[in-house]
Write the structure tokens for this entry.
Amino acid sequence: MTKQTAQLTIDGNTFALPICESTTGEKALDIRGLLRDTGCITLDSGYMNTGSCQSQITYLDGEKGILRYRGYEVADLAEHCQFIEVAYLLLTGELPTAIELAQFKNDMTKFALIHEDMIHFFDHFPPKASPMSILSTMVGTLHDFYPEMDLDEDPYGGITTTTARLLSKTRTIAAFSYKKNMGHPLAYPRPDLSYCSNFLYMMFDRPNLPYTIEPVLVSALNKLLILHADHEQNCSTSTVRLVGSAGVRLYPSISAGISALWGPLHGGASAAVMRMLEKIYADGMNYDKYIEMAKDPGNPYRLTGFGHRVYKTYDPRATIIKKTCHEVLSTLKISDPLLDIALELEERVGNDEYFQKRNLYPNVDFYSGIIYRAMGIPTNMFTVMFALGRLPGWISHWQEMNLGKDSSRIGRPRQVYSGIPTRSFVPLGERH
Ligand code: ACO
């Protein structure tokens, strides 16, 4: 079969570009030989139209609202799986058998504690240190406390001591960062609890104030983590791959991904949504003011929680999160005015031509904060929750990048230089 090509004409010379097809039928122009053949590079700020790798982990179609991990619909996984089952799927490519899952759960228990010397680190952050800075620092530090084994540990990646340790210990670090922020004594992980129950226990159990683990919250947390577990080449995942491509080991590569996620345009959006809803509430539910501000071309203000770089329809994750939000609030009989505001805002935005024309729908961050609030998780921990969910995705991409064909190639984008072409040097005394 002849391979399809695209023709590119530059200055009257025509070049053939191979067309590479994905397993789901999308086409990509393979420009890897472009510079060599034509002397040209491509310009694509924000990588809006650049495929940086070939990946077998996650498929998403933003036009149709499809998100699949290793071929499975995310809605099915969120409905039927435990988060660690999905982590196993992302890491190995297959859902675990009952025996494999039991073994993996055992690993989560075995590796839940962190080295006691690391605990002293928590004491030396300033009292109001951001839980994200603590998380990123501590995850990077794991590299020194648990010197990683070489890739030889398991040439196929997947579940290794290194990856299981990271998944379990990051949960402990996340909960401890909250305790540190609150000035509360640490609650050590319990071997009898599941991944999500254990996290809630470590967050909220206090001496003389034992925490009751609500099943509806465990189930909601489980769904939230699954829905955040991977999202192909977003800013933080690409950061993990790019940093890892320099030969940086797993833990510091993940630490870099955590820092990338911190940004308000990425993982920081759910906290920004809560601030926006609180502002609308404090402003006497003046929806029009915020909607008009967002529509004003002269005003950079945007309605946070609406729009997505890839989804041009309802984010499939947002559908599940909205439903879960209702379940949590009704089961726990919580009345949160922010949910009413969110629903009303969504309704008004949905009927507004500006948002309709631009395909701006609620994204994953729009309703998730209201669930976290019901759990008692403060706004400054929302991005930490996102990081906890995204961890299996980051690890899977780091492994795939390291074990892939291009593993020896450092990530190195090009640029179109826009500065002064050349100047004659002026000695210090002659400069004015
Ligand atoms: N409110 C108002 N207008 C918006 C919004 C919004 N939330 N989002 C996009 N628009 C408008 C833009 O002003 C632009 O209008 P124009 O064509 O008249 O100039 C148009 O829609 C397209 O916007 P872009 O910025 O080109 O879209 P892009 O795909 O690059 O941006 C992004 C996606 C960054 C998420 C954007 O929708 C946004 O800023 N949303 C609010 C922040 C947010 O919720 N971020 C979380 C994303 S989810 C995640 O990262 C996990």
